[in-house]
Amino acid sequence: MTNKFTYWLRNFLPLLFFLLPQIAQSADDVASQTNLNVVWTCLAAFIVFFMQAGFATVEIGLTRAKNAVNIVMKNLMDFSIGSLTFYLLGFGLMFGKSNGFFGTTHFYLSGTTGEHWNYTFIIFQTVFAATSATIVSGAMAERTKFVAYLIYSFFISAIIYPVFGSWAWGSLLDGKGWLETLPTGAFCDFAGSTVVHSIGGWLALTGAYFLGPRKGKFDINGNPRAIPGHNIVLAAIGVFILWFGWFAFNAGSTTVGTASIGRIAFVTNLGGAAGSLGAMFTAWILFKKPDASMTLNGVLAGLVSVTAGCNSITPNGALIIGFLAGIFVVLSVIAIEKYLKIDDPVGAVSVHGVCGIWGTLACGLFNAEGALGIAEHSTGLFYGGGINQLISQVIGASAAFAWGIGMGGLLFITIKHSIGLRVTEHEEYVGLDIEEHGMEAYYTTK
């Protein structure tokens, strides 16, 4: 017995003393990585929140001065209402235990543990929900009742956005949506070209349609007329803020502090830069001048288009996707006004709806390597992945269009025929700042 004990001490005790520090170090490494994930995801959420300022200044700059206060109030209420409703209802619908179509748990965070990660995850998802609701504001600017805006902002953040989000992103927590279980492969939308942007874009299209154009937008023959924004410099500042925020929007969607952050940020930047060039050259050819507002929207179009596949496309793929998005956004703005007779003061439908769907479909063409959590190999048609991913993308994009148009139609028709959707002609003429809020954004001293 003594010999065995001596043998154990001689052979295994040194090994034990060697392993204990390693085990302790491993535990410290896990804790450090968890803390890093929390810090990075929170930082990304804070930066994405600042995009609300970008959306507000873009919309103010591209519209008339008499409606600036109203736009500030709309963007402020988007985030305030969205934060509360997403916490109470939307988060559970989006990420609770799912029946494949919506979550049924985690309302007001019930049923979740009190771990710091849960709070981190919900603040990050909250700023995304607010972004989707804000997109609608630009398309319906300068003629929407403020109380009507509050109502549809509530329903977008509480139900419409979260339910579709659960179809594509439910598995990020406790659910699993039907778009994640398609027989052709999981729908790919890493950071929200469709979940955030297309849903917002199609709601914007529906709202602008039922609201009708601003007075003077179309002549007696139905031809569109320009209603210039009052401050293109302010709009440009907004675009730069949004471009900055997009690094966190896309790279923050990793929710982990790993080396992939840098690659995603780099691809995102290329998409925005290429989009600006695509839009500028297209506008230059069509209008004989390098139009500033179209070029600014080209940046946003490029950023939207690479959002879906920012973790799985190559830099060269991002250049192609972004450049084409810049072309598409100019053509879309023209077509929506000329053929659909829809007045979208900031081009929100074209930037977010049209280019969101383009970016979503582009995943099926340009996915060059395994998307995080989706595939272990290339799924893009142009990279030998076959057509299955493209089929999944078509299904997901079509579902977003049907959901956004259908629910948007129901929502806006209900508001229009109850409390009313549009201000009076006099209120529109005088300006929503004075009529709705009793103040002006700009005063001149005498």
Give an overview in words:
This protein has 446 residues and is mainly alpha-helical. It has a single domain, classed as Ammonium transporter fold, CATH 1.10.3430.10. The chain is 68% helix and 0% strand. It is built from 14 helices and no strands. α2 packs antiparallel against α7. The protein starts with a helix and ends in a 9-residue tail after the last helix. About 1% of the residues have low confidence.
Task: Name its key features.
446 residues, mainly alpha, Ammonium transporter fold, 68% helix
Radius of gyration: 24 Å
Share of helix, binned:
55-70%
Poorly predicted tracts of residues: 371-375
How would you describe the oligomerization state of the chains in this entry?
Answer: single chain
CATH level-four homologous superfamily name = Ammonium transporter AmtB like domains
Q: How many strand units?
A: 0
Mean pLDDT: 91
User: Could you spell the SSE succession in H and E letters?
Assistant: HHHHHHHHHHHHHH
Q: What share of residues are in beta strands?
A: under 5%
CATH topology: the name is Ammonium transporter fold
